[in-house]
Amino acid sequence: MSKRFPSQRDIDSFLSEPRLAMLLYHGPRPSPTGVPVWFDWDGDVVHMFSGRNSPKVQYLKDNPNVSVLVTNRVGEPEGWVAFDGQIQIADFTEESWLPLLDRVAPRYWDLQVPEYADEIATWRAAPNAFVSLRLEPSAIRSGG
What we know:
CATH class of the domain at 8-92 and 129-143: Mainly Beta
CATH topology of the domain at 8-92 and 129-143: Pnp Oxidase, Chain A
Order of helices and strands: HEEEEHEEHHEE
Oligomer: single chain
């Protein structure tokens, strides 16, 4: 544990706030590729999603080894949590898609804004357009 996160409870509290994560994976270049993702940490698994036809999905199928890095916001004391392991890619069912979307969408978008609400409504109606990215970390690192 780090000074910023002396316990798992502190890490879980940090992760319960709206924060972007960076999904770091082996993509088309020699160096790692990093993209921002919405995430949900349930204490055991990092849940994310991607468009089914996103290029990163094919790269993740070819090499599922990733890190997911979550950092502090500007103005907040320095701190970060990284999850390392292998991504599991799976299809969503309506029963698995809607609860995840309902948890994460309001964290990242103000759904009172009509454009955001309309986009989420479109996503809600199309679970087959997305795939689940599930990471049960083999290691959790933190610092600060």
